[in-house]
């Protein structure tokens, strides 16, 4: 969760407070019997009060968070601000009375309190308008950042979906099947066609139904079995209630591809992959039988999936790497 703090320049705070103090002393300057000392005390009281109100309102503003952009105007904070403003102004009025004992304390205090309330409300409203503008800017920045991240994730996903090695291996397998008059050649062509049709249809979607994702996976596994034969086994045990849940497209295919990339797949050592549901998760689990010479990895596959879940659900995937089992748990999206 992104969190930043709204700030006002100290230069603005002190200069505006000084200007307000000078402004409130203008009526005394215009009086026939002008008293410079009295005007100085009056403007100093206003200046100090304005500085206090500035910093009090800034400190009590809520920190901006990406999960809550509506923490702007608050009646409760305004009432608290008015209460503390009245208290501080009363103290400043007492100090002024000590310095200018010849003045009638009652009318002076009442004038200061009214002035303090007006200054308090004026600063509070100005800060909230500035804060709202700040919030809008932060939302815009986060939208642009999310858009940029999403474009990057889609690009990486597309590169992995149309994997040239997978296409090359599939075409080689098809060539071998046709040359050997394999009776499953037509089925292979249909599955390969379906798989790339799914790719074209789903690549622009953020989410698809789990049932549709399982269809993509079924076509993908069929193509893999034509290549590895009995070297790979996939068991699916997902509660029927989850079939209408949502999942980023090609997530399961990428996870199965990740299993094959890092583990030995052969008829003598079949790779066992299990797909099941449990406690609000869809899990992909495989037995660990690492290759002696691991393939080069960018580390982008799992990170790509994780980033999409963060963007869509604000949750991360769970990775459990044991000595004998490697498990990826995906949060269910209702």
UniProtKB/TrEMBL annotation:
<dbReference type="GO" id="GO:0000155">
    <property type="term" value="F:phosphorelay sensor kinase activity"/>
</dbReference>
<keyword id="KW-0808">Transferase</keyword>
<dbReference type="InterPro" id="IPR010559">
    <property type="entry name" value="Sig_transdc_His_kin_internal"/>
</dbReference>
<feature type="domain" description="Signal transduction histidine kinase internal region">
    <location>
        <begin position="153"/>
        <end position="230"/>
    </location>
</feature>
<keyword id="KW-0418">Kinase</keyword>
<dbReference type="GO" id="GO:0016020">
    <property type="term" value="C:membrane"/>
</dbReference>
<protein>
    <submittedName>
        <fullName>Histidine kinase</fullName>
    </submittedName>
</protein>
<keyword id="KW-1133">Transmembrane helix</keyword>
<keyword id="KW-0812">Transmembrane</keyword>
<feature type="transmembrane region" description="Helical">
    <location>
        <begin position="105"/>
        <end position="127"/>
    </location>
</feature>
<feature type="transmembrane region" description="Helical">
    <location>
        <begin position="12"/>
        <end position="30"/>
    </location>
</feature>
<dbReference type="InterPro" id="IPR050640">
    <property type="entry name" value="Bact_2-comp_sensor_kinase"/>
</dbReference>
<feature type="transmembrane region" description="Helical">
    <location>
        <begin position="78"/>
        <end position="99"/>
    </location>
</feature>
<feature type="transmembrane region" description="Helical">
    <location>
        <begin position="45"/>
        <end position="66"/>
    </location>
</feature>
<dbReference type="InterPro" id="IPR036890">
    <property type="entry name" value="HATPase_C_sf"/>
</dbReference>
<dbReference type="Pfam" id="PF06580">
    <property type="entry name" value="His_kinase"/>
</dbReference>
<keyword id="KW-0472">Membrane</keyword>
